[in-house]
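wait is this the right file?? whatever heres the structure
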């Protein structure tokens, strides 16, 4: 049995873009509007000689009402089935109340978490990463899923936690 890494986070932070980047192909659906990933979808992946299952999440995020609780429910199911978690946040938006709610749920789960601060597209944006130390989830890894920045360091940490 290979280990399972769940990718969780608010809608639109770039979870599916990150999954595609890790897979090296466009398997997960990426959209400019929240709510595209309706189910947990899992893929076979590999990093530095370690095979694992990568689970993209985000379902039931199309409705505006109850969006926070729906996202948290979905994340919770994926987290329960995972060995370790990548929490994705949006470095351009900054920390939100939903990020903090997801962190509470992750703490309660007892699972290890690697924190990815996405949309750090260039070196000039790196300062945005440090704010997320405040989430209390350890080192924030600044990445750009879109441009492939920082993915190796993130995966080293996540795979080490399997
Ligand atoms: P998800 O809802 O968390 O799965 O987010 P998606 O992967 O569907 O991406 C949401 C939007 O964010 C899309 O318009 C992506 O192109 C954009 N996006 C994802 N990663 C990055 C990134 O590293 N930098 C920037 N600037 N945009 C990104
Ligand atoms: Mg998605």
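ok assuming it is, sequence goes like this
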């Amino acid at each position: 049995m290979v280990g399972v890494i769940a990718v969780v986070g608010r809608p639109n932070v770039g979870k599916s873009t990150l999954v595609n980047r890790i897979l090296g192909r466009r398997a997960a659906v990426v959209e400019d509007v929240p709510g595209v990933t309706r189910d947990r979808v899992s893929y076979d992946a590999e990093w530095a000689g370690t095979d694992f299952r990568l689970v993209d999440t985000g379902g039931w995020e199309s409705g505006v009402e109850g969006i926070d609780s729906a996202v948290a429910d979905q994340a919770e199911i994926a987290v329960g089935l995972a060995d370790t978690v990548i929490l994705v946040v949006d470095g351009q938006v900054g920390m939100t109340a939903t990020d903090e709610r997801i962190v509470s749920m992750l703490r309660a789960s007892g699972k290890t978490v690697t924190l990815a601060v996405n949309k750090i597209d260039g070196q000039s944006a790196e300062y945005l990463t440090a704010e997320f130390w405040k989430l209390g989830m350890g080192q924030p890894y600044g990445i750009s899923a879109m441009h492939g920045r920082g993915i190796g360091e993130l995966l080293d940490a996540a795979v080490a936690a399997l």
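Residues 59-64 have pLDDT under 50 and may be disordered. so i think its the right one actually
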